[in-house]
Automatic annotation (TrEMBL):
Keywords: Antibiotic resistance, ATP-binding, Nucleotide-binding, Transport. Pfam families: ABC_tran. This is ABC transporter ATP-binding protein. GO terms for molecular function: ATP binding; ATP hydrolysis activity. Residues 12-242 form the ABC transporter domain. Its main location: membrane. It comes from Protaetiibacter intestinalis. One of its GO terms (cellular component) is plasma membrane. GO terms for biological process: response to antibiotic. InterPro entries: AAA+_ATPase, ABC_transporter-like_ATP-bd, ABC_transporter_ATP-binding, P-loop_NTPase. It is a peripheral membrane protein. It is found in: Cell membrane. It comes from the Bacteria.
Length: 258
């Protein structure tokens, strides 16, 4: 294991990550440095390679080439030490949804070796934060999409990780819960935690993130502070300018109603 990390060691360092699925190069020698304490947004069009990148960064998907290090610990050569520092809200991961929400958070905490007494308090706090206390005893299989997202987020937070990796965390989440979660994430980064978040919401990224990378076709088009990347425009305009793809059409003639 690496020596005690310092603020000068990035929370996440991706170097030359490469992943191909058959003939599709999903991630094309992507490098990115996420400074400790930053709130880092990852944006890009559908199929840009965001989820594949985050899967390789968190030890879920083995890269064809390149490295990922969390606070200086290589994710693929020392996965146990690296994963202990990561809280991961992954896209499309199956949860053990026969468990109740309370059981699922408890189970996640036990996986990280938290003692039961400590876990009970953390679980109650997280259920309250996510507005899920009333659904604590309900199997997760019976949760709505937004409730499922929130319970998965609670599971990612329970071991107080140093780095939070969140793939589309606010998708389907109601505005009140989203605002509460945003407050908690702000407090978390203010206390030295690091968040990397992939999102299609430019508003959210512009509001919450201090850094952003725009990814397309498996590569970083631009990365830096939000102000550097915006370069005087809105993030939305900058994104459209860099990524392209607007069609400026009213749609096919057969769809028009008059
Ligand atoms: N398991 C897989 N098998 C085959 N192709 C895959 C697989 N996972 C991803 N891909 C392909 O890799 C590319 C990148 O996909 P990825 O899911 O990483 O993009 P994304 O930026 O997260 O997209 P979205 O914003 O739509 O979620 C796409 O072309 C996708 O079709």
């Amino acid at each position: 294991m690496a020596s005690a990390p310092t603020a000068s060691v990035p929370a996440l360092e991706l170097a030359g990550l490469l992943k191909a699925f058959g003939n599709t190069v999903a991630v094309d020698r992507l490098s990115l440095t996420v400074p400790t304490g930053s709130f880092y947004g990852l944006v890009g069009p559908n199929g840009a390679g965001k989820t594949t990148t985050l899967s390789m960064a968190t030890g879920l998907l083995r890269p064809d080439a390149g490295t990922a290090a969390v606070h200086g610990v290589d994710v693929w050569s020392d996965p146990v030490a690296a994963k202990a520092m990561i809280g991961n809200l992954a896209d499309g991961i199956r949860l053990f949804d026969r468990l109740t929400g309370e059981q699922l958070i408890t189970y996640s905490g036990m996986m990280f070796g938290l003692p039961r007494e400590e876990l009970a308090g953390r679980t109650a706090d997280l259920l309250e934060l996510m507005d899920l206390t009333a659904a604590a005893g309900t199997p997760v299989a019976d949760y709505s999409a937004g409730m499922t997202k929130k319970i998965a987020l609670a599971c990612a937070l329970v071991h107080a990780p140093r780095l939070l990796v969140l793939d589309e965390p606010f998708e389907s989440v109601d505005p009140v819960s989203a605002a509460n979660i945003e407050d908690v994430l702000r407090g978390y980064t203010a206390s030295g935690g690091t968040v990397i978040v992939s999102s299609h919401s430019m508003d959210l990224v512009q509001r919450m993130c201090d850094h952003v990378a725009i990814i397309a076709a498996g590569r970083v088009l631009v990365a830096g502070t939000v102000d550097e990347v915006r370069a005087g425009a809105t993030l939305q305009d900058r994104f459209l300018e860099l990524v392209g793809g607007r069609t400026h059409t009213e749609g096919p003639a057969w769809l028009r109603q008059s």
